[in-house]
Amino acid sequence: MTMENNSTQAAATTISSISSISTKSKTPTIREQHVKKKNVKARLFFFGALLLALLVMASFAESFCPYDPYAQNLDIALQAPSAEHIFGTDRYGRDMLSRVIAASHVSIFSSLSLVAAITIIGTTIGIVCGWRGGRLDTVLMRAADMFLAFPGLVFAMAVAGVMGGGIMSAVIALAAISWPKYARVARSKTLSVREMAYMRAARLSGSGTLKIIVRHILPNILTPIIVTSMLDIGTMMMELAGLSFLGLGAKPPIAEWGSMMSETRRLLSTVPIAVFAPGGAIFVSVMIFNLFGDALRDYMDPKRRGR
Amino acid sequence: MNVRKYFASRMIQLVPILIGITFLSFAMMQVAGSDAVTEMYSNAGAAVSEETLDAARARLGLDKPFIVQYFVWLGNMMTGDMGKSFISGRDVFQTFMSKLPATLLLTVMSVAATIVLSVPLGLLAAVSAERSASEQDSTHRTIYSVIDNVVRFLSFIGNSMPNFFVALLLMNFLAIKLGLLPVISSGVTLESAVMPTMTLAIAMTAKYIRQVRGAVLDELGQGYVTGARARGVRESVILTKSVLRSSLSTLLTLLALSIGSLLGGTAIVESIFMWDGVGKLAVDAITMRDYPMIQAYVVWMAIIYVGVNFVTDMLYVVIDPRVRLGAEK
Predict the structure, then answer these.
(1) CATH class, B95-289 region
(2) Residue in chain A nearest B161 by alpha carbon
(3) B136 touching A, CB under 8 A?
(4) How confident is the model at residue B59, as a pLDDT?
(5) Would you list the domain boundaries of chain B?
(6) Are A252 and B134 in contact (CB under 8 A)?
(7) What are the structural domains of chain A?
């Protein structure tokens, strides 16, 4: 259908929206190109550092918590923000700041493993389809089209609900609808390198199929796939949080940003911070992932820097 | 003539997709574990013998092979019979259809709001971006670049906020703090539609501004724009008559694609604002494991989505002469 050229168009247009200048009349001088490259690099390092900090926090979340995120103390339930409890406390007297920090573990690593899973599955299917062609290709690509024809979130909601909730079923539900995008990118890239001369050279020098795929195809198609998956992490994080918010993902008492917000949303009129703290955490993390993804894309594709 | 042929061939292409969608929805509910009969009796709260269950299965045709069941189910679905809700016992199809208008209204309003907001803002950003590069005067250059960056920054923020967070923010400020709007909807009224529409529109606008900006910027770099400028055609005329028109098909595609996430998004937004549409119905059905209702929701949402994409494809032919000529060939 129209999906494929769409996603490339969407990619192309978002790319043009990143760089600030777009005139075809003016070709950048070598010096200007140099400055641009330096800027992109600086951006990449800056957001990379932020991302690293976020990941470190998520990995050792529990040790950054000022209080035990799961310890209940009804005496101090529903407190407004104070010096001891910067984000206040929730219905059970649990420290909100600690819970927000603890939740980063589940929220961030579930999105990361989701994106890793769909990248690996989708890419593998795509390469196999592009390499082998024939009936296998037709069948798998029809299946991919079928999933693309579904409104994704609707399907994911139903799958997660039917599987009975839990963060694992939310991850599987979103993986089920998201792999076709990667399969399509990997397949079209594989098709474009398959007939290259160096491919025949590799074959002539006696490389087996597996070696050709791993040594020659994969490195040549990896860039667009990595960029796509980096840019997907933020979206996936929001969708996972959305499923959890609906009660179809992480279940209380496990601290996860989406489910925390659905727990505290009744407190919106009394303790709004209990809702906005986890919401803000999602927002900031998604933002960091998106900014890093953008920087990475600009860095990986020098042609787009000049635009 | 050939355009009609093109329409027909596209129609035929829809058939396998629709079959696939219905099959997938059917299979999903089958592998869900417990079958309808066990579910029905366990909801009734009675312990039943294996014979009664078998008899009920035979009566409902659940002892037949999977593929036979699918075609029976498909046939029933076409005639509007999708079974009874496990929870309320009411007819699923009728319940679904009675709630559908509210969701469609919400969808149409948010798409309208998205277009109204994002096209001017995207255009503004694109024109500013272009001028910030070409303007001689350095103060003007700075102003234009600031405008462009502000719009892009706003769109970036909107892109990084999950819709339920936006919904709760709106609720806090517009309803609780300022008291302008009711906190939860009191039926399908204009007043209670404002916040759900805004929530859905904000997320889409953020995404869309970037696309409009990109599409317009691409068009502005085309030779015909330079040509028109050289001939002294007014800038406003160039923008509205040529640039917007030629970027229309890109925008249309993106809008059609976002309908998919919009339909999913309505579920969250509807259940936050208690908007009485199919999204809320589905969320309730999912929490209560009301399988026939979930199935109806998935199937019909998929059909609507496929339908919207089909109509979009057909619209290209109308708005874009290049596609029309391609189809005629």
Answers:
(1) mainly alpha
(2) A283
(3) no
(4) 67
(5) 95-289
(6) no
(7) 105-305 (1.10.3720.10)
**B85 and A CB contact within 8 Å:** no
In order of A135, A181, A190, A194, A210, the CA distances from A132 in angstroms are 9, 19, 10, 10, 12
Tell me: pLDDT of A307 over 80.
no
**Secondary structure of residue B216 in the 3-state scheme:** helix
| A138 in contact with chain B, both atoms CB, cutoff 8 A | no
Whole-complex ipTM = 0.83
Give the position of tokens 């798409």.
Answer: B111
Asked if A276 reaches chain B (Cβ–Cβ under 8 Å), the answer is yes
pLDDT of residue A37: 81
Distant-in-sequence, close-in-space partners of A276: CB < 8 Å, separation ≥ 6 = B168, B169, B172
For tokens 């990449």, what's the residue? A44
Backbone φ and ψ of B148, nearest 5°: -60, -45
Task: Quote the pTM value.
Answer: 0.84
Specify which residues A95 forms β-bridges with: A89
Q: Which residues of B touch A245 (CB under 8 A)?
A: 162, 164, 268
Alpha helices in chain B (DSSP H): 2-30, 36-44, 50-60, 66-78, 92-134, 138-159, 163-170, 190-220, 223-230, 235-237, 244-273, 278-287, 291-319, 321-328
Nearest to B168 among A146, A162, A265 (CB): A265
- Report pLDDT for B77: 81
Q: What dihedral angle (degrees, nearest 10) is formed by the CA atoms of A300, A233, A235, A143?
A: 90
In this prediction, residue A124 carries a pLDDT of: 93
Q: The tokens of A126 are what?
A: 């795509």
Q: Which amino acid is at B247?
A: S
b/e B86-110 (16+ beta carbons within 10 angstroms → b) = beeeebbbebbeebbebbeebbebb
Return phi, psi of residue B228, to 5°: -65, -40
Kindly tell me if the per-residue pLDDT of A86 is higher than 80: no
CB contact under 8 A, A151 and B159: no
